[in-house]
Amino acid sequence: MAAGPRRDTRGIVDAPDLFARVRFRRREPAAALRPYLEHYWLIDWDLTEPYAAHVVPHPSVNLVLQRYGAAETPAERSGYAEVAGVDPGLFTRKLTGRGRVCGVQFRPGGFRPFAPEHALCDLTGRRIAAAEVLRTAPPVDAVLDPDDEDARVAALDAFLLALEPRPDPRATLAMAAVDRVRTDHTVRRVDRLAQDLGLSARSLQRLFSAYVGVGPKWVILRYRIHEALERAGSGPAVDWGRLAADLGYSDQAHLVRDFTATVGVPPTAFAPR
């Protein structure tokens, strides 16, 4: 596992524009939590004009503690926590005024040890009050009140450690399977992935349904789109035909179709301006 939080911007649509408007950081959790978590992510903003942030979500569950200074409801103004299952589509959030969000991105497959009674497919596409999914409610004020981000991280560590996640061999297998898809671009077919893991395709489907929340084919496609989105923002001279081939597409048109269906615009719309 790589040391420290990842530094790429994969999944964030027009990351330079977002980072120019908000303060965004990733932080590493306590050592005992790292087998299950990707990282914590912290966002603070103070905007004079509304801004819509767009994300092509990872195949991960997130625990999100949030407070919106210009919110419409008392809960949003005082702060609340929710569990966000894997979002199949493009996630958009309108930011206004001042606000703060502290999030926990679990590794794909890594949330189940914290809520073992929940099949992850039941959370897909849903945002649920955290107290309904976890056995205790997160300490919203303890996480969101401090301006010192070390204190926020410490509060998240303490809460998650108190949930006492226990090793689950099937969760470990699911995490390894998704890591394989993310890091090995030669994995383009579900049957190949299942074979490499010593599983039948049906067993792999069941594993992903229960521990990831989406199927392996969906995960393969989503990481392809993340790669394409990252390349789209890297420079104006992207060879889309070559990239399509590198990602396992039969031709450029299929890549453009999948990208446009997921993000809403073709990849060329995200070339640097």
> In percent terms, what proportion of residues is strand?
15-25%
Element-level helix/strand string: HEEEEHEEEEHHHHHHHH
Percentage of helical residues?
Answer: 25-40%
List the strand order in the largest sheet: 1-2-7-4-5-8
| Distance between the amino and carboxyl termini | 35 Å
Q: How many domains in all?
A: 2
Poorly predicted runs are none
For the biggest sheet, the summary is: 6 strands, antiparallel
Structural class: alpha+beta
| CATH structural class of the largest domain | Mainly Beta
Outline? globular
- Average pLDDT metric: 91
Counted beta strands: 8
Radius of gyration: 19 Å
CATH domain fold name of the largest domain: Immunoglobulin-like
Query: Which architecture of the largest domain does the CATH hierarchy give at level 2?
Result: Sandwich
Total helical segments:
10
Give the assembly state of these chains: single chain
Topology overview:
Elements: H1 15-19, E1 22-27, E2 37-46, E3 51-55, E4 62-68, H2 74-78, E5 80-84, E6 91-95, E7 98-106, E8 127-129, H3 140-144, H4 149-162, H5 169-183, H6 190-197, H7 201-211, H8 216-232, H9 240-246, H10 252-263
Antiparallel strand pairs: 1-2, 2-7, 3-6, 4-5, 4-7, 5-8
Helix pairs in contact: 8-10, 9-10
